[in-house]
Amino acid sequence: MLMPSIFGERLFDDWTDFSFPDVDKMLYGKHADRIMKTDVKENEKDYEIDVDLPGFKKEDVKLQLKNGYLFIEASKGLDKDKKDDDGRYIRRERYSGSMSRSFYVGEDVTEKDVHAQFKDGILKLMVPKKEHKKVEQDQYIAIEG
């Protein structure tokens, strides 16, 4: 039976789906497959950031530190030129494309301070805590005139 759709989604999905709810869709919306799921843990001396990147290789991931922000970018594509002699694909759900995410880590953090490791589809980052320079509150500004 054909169901009416609005913007590529079925109109009656919420009423006719009696299976378990899709938690990712509830948390991240309809673009949940393009979001880097991330855990950030605060330790005494640093922050531990775990980013899920299933199906990506170390070469597909780029890290950049710019203006106090840590940028994470991952991109990959499916090889569409490769032909399969065994049959044809009926449905392809694996992700191809690019995704990015950024975190503010502070102006004092340098590339040498950030440690990164990629293993089993998880990017693990260790970002040190840097003390912020305290601004003195007792300084007054003279009013002219």
Report how far apart the termini are. Answer: 80 Å
Helix content: under 10%
* Biggest sheet record: 4 strands, antiparallel
CATH architecture of the domain at 36-81 and 88-130: Sandwich
CA-based shape: elongated
Low-pLDDT stretches: none
Q: How do the strands of the widest beta sheet line up side by side?
A: 3-4-9-8
Q: What is the helix tally?
A: 2
Rg on CA atoms, Å = 23 Å
The CATH class of the domain at 36-81 and 88-130 is Mainly Beta
Short descriptors:
34% strand, Immunoglobulin-like, four-stranded antiparallel beta sheet, 145 residues, three-stranded antiparallel beta sheet, 7% helix, mainly beta
Description:
The longest helix has 6 residues, at 23-28. With 145 residues, this protein is mainly beta. Strand 1 and strand 2 (9-10) form a beta hairpin. Strands 3-4-9-8 form a four-stranded antiparallel sheet, with no helix packed on it. Strands 5-6-7 form a three-stranded antiparallel sheet, with no helix packed on it. It has a two-stranded antiparallel ribbon with strand order 1-2. It has two helices and nine strands. It has a domain at 36-81 and 88-130: Immunoglobulin-like, CATH 2.60.40.790. Helices cover 7% and strands 34% of the residues.
